[in-house]
Design goal:
Elements lengths: L1 E7 L7 H15 L3 E8 L16 E3 H9 L8 H7 L2 H8 L11 H8 L7 H12 L6 E4 L8 H8 L3 E5 L2 H7 L4 H14 L2 E4 L2 H11 L6 E3 L18 E6 L8 H13 L4 E7 L6 H13 L6 E5 L3 H9 L3 E3 L10 H8 L4 E4 L4 H8 L2 E4 L4 H12 L2 H18 L2 H20 L1
Parallel strand pairs: 1-2, 1-4, 2-3, 4-5, 5-6, 6-7, 8-9, 8-11, 9-10, 11-12, 12-13
Helix pairs in contact: 1-18, 5-9, 6-7, 11-12, 11-16, 14-17
């Protein structure tokens, strides 16, 4: 099967969606499918080999922004658009992409959801021309529902089915200040127009169905999987380490985790805190705030912050962790970071919210606590720090759970099954 997978890149920082999509396409290729990962807006940053390294970036982020903000750029010749869509310029723009918050992107989000009727019509037409110049795919997959404005134009031009993935974009839509209601309406219309919808969890399917009015039964669920190569068992006899590895900002619960860490130190635990993951320019004030809290409590010397690590550095980071915890303050639609910890044999403490119970009860290896409950969080982590036997048993159970059902190969097999069914149905 020939699959084109369109994914919005970040340009300079790791994002779970890009990592997931890159792993999916690599695994589909390993299953002998002709799968291509096409970057949009900015280049894709993934773990390991990036499948899109030789692909042009379509709907360049600089052009999309200028065409939104400056009407003149909606009519300039294509050669000028091409200059603004070169990878070096987009990579430079990517350095600042993390400074932009969803609150300021309402108008542009609505415009992109309008597809050919939006301000980025020229970029959409350029994308359609580029896709038409390639060998005709059997199916086109949109990485998330913020791209569904492209579904109709792609199907009309290529005469192929279009499938949208549903990941964590509902949080982005909810955060919009301007145009939130219109964006949700257009998302619902675009998803309804797709030939299929694939959610990364049953929770994501239920939430998106509830918000859009679509029948939840029209969503397929394909759980995320990760590339498990290179993950080693933790250093079980080393010093006690409480680990966090996700985007370092308040919605992931960094404030709550720091308070839990300070409570554990007060209880006499000789434990250190290691925080790692994506750190965008716009998130730095939040990290500085928790550093100041640690300094005030006299514990900053027992904490470390490691930002924007490579895939190999991330695996090395997890090898030293005793207990892993991202006490997210929002309803995660999957929580892929937990799979990464479990793949390294590290037990997880997580809030009982969103898709986390759905995923972690299947993998094993986790202790679930009431969301936002500092006391329960401290007790759960304390229980694991003081019981090395249970800690090791949970970590091993989680490692087996990930290897047994949540690898990139498992994800690709499930995705191919859905896409094959869609292609057969549309062709009938």
């Amino acid at each position: 099967m020939r699959v084109l997978h369109l994914t919005a890149g970040t340009g300079s920082w790791h994002c779970g969606t890009c990592i997931r999509d890159n792993a999916l396409v690599r695994a589909m290729r390993a299953l002998h499918h002709d799968a291509d990962l096409i970057p949009m807006y900015l280049p894709i940053v993934g773990d390991g080999v990036t499948c899109s390294a030789d692909e042009p970036v379509l709907i360049g982020g600089v052009n999309a922004y200028l065409q939104q903000e400056v009407p003149l750029f909606r009519v300039v010749p294509r050669w000028m658009d091409a200059v603004l869509a070169t990878r070096p310029l987009l990579a430079l723009a990517g350095r600042f992409s993390g400074s932009t918050r969803p609150e300021s992107l309402g108008a542009m989000t609505v415009s992109m959801l309008e597809g050919l009727a939006g301000n980025q019509r020229k970029e959409v037409e350029r994308l359609l021309d580029a896709l038409e110049s390639r060998p005709r795919p059997d199916v086109v997959v949109l990485s998330n529902s913020l791209l569904v404005g492209l579904a109709g134009p792609i199907r009309d031009r290529l005469d192929v089915p279009v499938v949208s993935t549903v990941q964590g974009e509902l949080h982005f839509l909810d955060a919009l200040d301007e145009g939130r209601e219109e964006a949700w309406t257009l998302t619902a219309q675009g998803l309804a127009a797709c030939d299929a919808r694939i959610a990364v969890s049953a929770f994501a399917a239920r939430e998106m169905a509830r918000r859009t009015g679509l029948d939840v039964g029209t969503f397929d669920v394909v759980h995320n999987g990760i590339d498990v190569a290179g993950y080693a068992e933790p250093e079980r006899m080393g010093p006690l380490v409480l680990g966090f590895f996700a985007r370092m900002y308040a919605p992931k619960g960094i404030d709550l985790l720091v308070e839990a860490f300070l409570n554990l130190r007060e209880r006499g635990h000789d434990v250190t805190l290691k925080m790692g993951g994506t750190l965008n320019p716009g998130d730095r004030p939040e990290v500085e705030r928790v550093r100041a809290r640690l300094q005030e409590a006299g514990a900053l010397q027992h904490a470390s912050f490691q930002a924007n690590l490579s895939a190999a550095e991330k695996r090395a980071f997890l090898r030293d962790v005793s207990v892993f915890c991202v006490p997210s303050a929002k309803d995660e639609t999957f929580g892929q970071y937990n799979l990464e910890a479990l793949a390294a044999g590290v037990p997880v403490v997580a809030p009982r919210r969103g898709a986390l119970p759905e995923v972690l009860t299947r993998t094993g290896g986790a202790v679930l606590v009431p969301p936002g409950d500092l006391g329960a969080l401290v007790e759960a982590i304390d229980g694991l720090l003081t019981d090395p036997v249970r800690r090791a048993a949970l970590g091993e159970a989680g490692r087996r759970g990930v290897h047994g059902g949540y690898t990139a190969a498992h994800m690709a097999q499930a995705e191919v099954a859905v896409l094959s069914r869609v292609v057969r149905r549309v062709a009938a």
